[in-house]
Amino acid sequence: MAKLELRGIAKSFGGSPALSGVSLAVEQGEFLTLLGGSGCGKSTTLRIVAGLTDPDAGDVLLDGRSIVATPAHKRGMAMVFQSYALFPHLTVAQNVAFGLEMRRHSGAEIQKKVARALDLVALGGLDARYPRQLSGGQQQRVALARALVVEPHLLLLDEPLSNLDAQLRAKLRVELRALQQQIGVTTIYVTHDQAEALALSDRIAFMAGGRIVELGAPEQVYRRPQSRATAEFLGAANLLEAAVTAVNGVSFAVDSRLGRLQFVRTDDLAPGEQVEICLRPEEIVLLGPAAPEGVPGVVRHAAYQGAVTEYIVEPQGVDLPLQVQVSGLSPWKPGDAVRILLPKQSAVLKRAAKH
Amino acid sequence: MVSFDHFIDAPATALPLARRRPAKLWIDLALLAPGAGFLLLAMALPLVQLLLASFGLFGLGATGPTFDNYVEVASNVLFTSAFRFSLTIAVATTVLSLVVATMTAAILQLDFPGRRLVSALYKIPLVVPSLIAAFLVLTVVGPGGMAARLLQPWGIAWPSLLHDKSGIGIIVVLLWHNVPITMLIVSAVAAAIPRPVIEAARTLGASPLRIFFRVIVPLCSPGISAAALLVFIDAFGTYAIPSIIGPAFPRTVSVMMTQEFLLHARWGTASALGVAMLLMTGVVLALYHALLARSRLLAA
Amino acid sequence: MNALWFIRSPRLRWLIGGLIVAATVTVFVFPMIIAVLWSLVDPNVGWFPPHVLPPGYSLDNWRALFAVPELSQAFLTSFIVAVLVTLLSLLLGFPTSYAIARRNLRHRRLIELLVLLPLTLPSVVLVTGLGSVFIRLGLSQTMAGVVLAQCIVVMPFTIRILTATLSGVPQDLIDAASNLGGGPLTVVRRVLLPMVMPGLFAASLLAFVNSLEEFLLSFVVGMPTVQTLPMLLWAYLGGRSSIQTYAAVVSLVLLIPTLAMLFVAERVLKQEHLAAGFGKG
Fold it and tell me: For residue C104, which of B5, B24, B157, A41 has the smallest C-alpha distance?
């Protein structure tokens, strides 16, 4: 178990920058996720940590020691790849034993540890199979066992679940988190799937354009994103442009196209500031037209999706369709008049001065 | 001429897009007759003739049914030494080709300045016929060749590789030819190893050397064994090279065989030699397939 | 992505690269240069040890290609045979390729194996049987005999390349053409042929070069009346007498189309043609 630190990592491929100044500290035993779209630099960051790619600038420290010059095979880490990268010519047991053999453990010890690792990922009894004889989920578990069995300082996972179908992905997500907490290994996880990131992580580092844009606990980055990019990547968001009119101790008021609105204050705000309010669809509540509060509006579109119903609702007299999500089956139909209750605790994004 | 690609699992046909028409036997036969039919005839007639002639039957210099030809092939020291010589050359060429080619192919997987040039140049021997290969190699390492001339001022005598009894000259020419072919096959297989597999080995603590022996070589083994088979068959049956630079004794089976019928018109012994050579090639092929089947069984 | 990850010093990388390039050039290019030098040696002066470079140069050996009867005759024979073998192997091979590629053959795998058999069989064995068969058929020492013998080892390549090409034509295209009112002949002429042109080109190129290079079968069947360039080369290299200068000229004459093919193949043709086509003489 170890603490990892990245300092000012920069990397470019053929002149185009992939990473520019990535700094990050991963605490001991922490599960940190690098989240972002393709090309944001998350995989490159992971590869630099693993030693598979050399950074152009910056330093990588493991427990305070620079390891940037240490070759990958001496870093004492283990990585799980998107394609699992199992050795096709070795059995499951031999695959799992590989790292231990490289570390020159004794035969008996290897046998014991391999058996334990396979039990840990619930693959006991499959040790004589070859990778191609396993399902995707089983291969993924072998890859995980192979990585965990060497008791790495750092466990690196590069989109390990993205080749699996949705149900299995959800199941393994739970298992992975439980396993990581049981073992307590410091883990860096790369994904483009925000649900995965939110479900697994102690902290999420959201990356875009080769930088870490935002870093924080899942609830924090989801509910109080600091940037529009984060807000939109982490989930559906209705963004409402507004100008702050008044601020007091616990709340603030804004002027917007939906009129004067009141929100709970979380950030430093000053009257006159231009902001965007991030309204999550599942936090908006629809009420009947006779309700005493909320913005009057009309249901334009309804899509029943089983667990939730999604609506497009248009506030009266304003061309600003809002996405609203209501759990289960709800009574509204297109054309119904409703009242739209906006969440008081919405995130506030500050807009650049140009507005 | 030997093509190698059919030893690798890459059927040239059977694209999923091509929907096949229902069979009409006579159309198929009419289509196949000129090409496949010709080849069938051109294979079957000589092989049947070879087999019959080896037993003294039906043909030029037929003596009536006899095993004499086989007895002679098995007892005459000229022939037995020929088999020993041909086998030695074939085995040596195969082993050396594999060692040199695997190492070079491994290096060619790496990026280094001039790599593209090397990858282009090493393909030259693939299209150079054996005779020319023999000539080209001899201009360098033959008697009075460039190597001898360049070493002379230092008083170093270059060993003559022409007509040497050990067959080293023959092996050198065969290597010039076969190392690139082996390299091409092995590189193709090596290039197919997914990059993350190597990277997984690296993060698990495997040094470059151990990655080479524990991951790359085992994963290349289908290509390596196919190449070995190909090189062996080529080296075992080669005629042009030993007929020019081989020694007067021992001779290769191929040279003995052609001599028997070209110089002495002894088609019987030549045919018996041919059948024996065919059998040995068959044994090697069977070994190869057994090995392949075993490895598939292991992997299945 | 740098694959030379375990060597971090750039200087060492250059050193390794330089060594490999030097070795490759020495082994594969250097002999060609010496061959060119040999072909340019002035026959009046010769090129004897310890001279590292020929003392005199002339084009006499190249002129001999046309002036010396046996050379010019062999040159002519080789190219005529090569053209005939190319045409014949395409003509005979195309229907078989079509059947393998596009028809639902019952024993397709077996037929494919049969087609490849001539390449796995040691030619010296084949020729021992073929020699006596051809003598009985009166094909020995005739150009027809040489052409037929070469077809045995050339046609497998032709069929293979054409099969690969033909099976690459999507049936949808053929169906679409028929659907739009094209009769079978029109479909072949307007759709199939244009699509297989590259394959036909590759197959002819390879057939031509392979025929040009073929030695053993031609040697046994044709000798001594029908003499091709490789047979002459064999003679010059010591089978009969050792004439290095003529050997150099003949080698280069045979190499130029071959290397041109390699060049064309690398640049123009699809990888599958290359893969199906590489062989050894």
Answer: B24
A46-65 confidence digits (pLDDT tens): 999 999 999 999 999 999 99
C-alpha to C-alpha distance for A202 and C241, rounded to whole angstroms: 85
Please count the residue pairs, one from chain A and one from chain B, whose beta carbons lie less than 8 angstroms apart: 73
Spatial strand order of the sheet with A285-287 comes to A285-287, A337-341, A295-304, A308-315, A322-327
| B172 contact partners, CB below 8 Å, separation of at least 6 | B137, B141, B161
| Rounded CA separation B178/B92 (Å) | 12
Q: Across the interface, do B49 and C280 touch by the CB < 8 Å criterion?
A: no
Report whether B190 contacts B109 (CB < 8 A). yes
B194/A51 CB distance under 8 A: no
Centre a 10 Å sphere on the Cβ of residue A307 and count the other Cβ atoms it contains.
9
- How far apart, in Å, are the Cα atoms of B150 and each of B214, C25, C34, C231, C247? 42, 17, 13, 31, 22
Nearest to B128 by CA among A219, A243, A73, C262: C262
Q: Pick B15's closest partner by Cβ from C167, C261, C279.
A: C167
Residue A212 phi, psi dihedral angles, 5° rounding: -85, 115
Chain C residues in contact with B131 by the CB 8 A cut-off are 215, 230, 233-234, 237, 251, 281
Contacts 24+ apart (CB under 8 A), C11-15: C13/B112, C13/B113, C14/B112, C14/B113
Which of A51, A75, A79 is opposite residue B200, by nearest beta carbon?
A79
Between CA A282 and CA A327 the distance in angstroms is 8
- The answer to whether residues A269 and A251 touch, using CB atoms and an 8 Å cutoff, is no
For C6, the closest chain A residue by CA position comes to A71
- Determine contact: C6 vs chain A, CB below 8 A: yes
- pLDDT tens across B118-177, in order? 888 888 888 788 888 888 888 888 877 888 888 888 888 778 777 888 888 899 999 998
| pLDDT above 60: residue A320 | yes
Residue A155 has pLDDT above 90, yes or no: yes
Phi, psi (deg, nearest 5) at residue A162: -75, -15
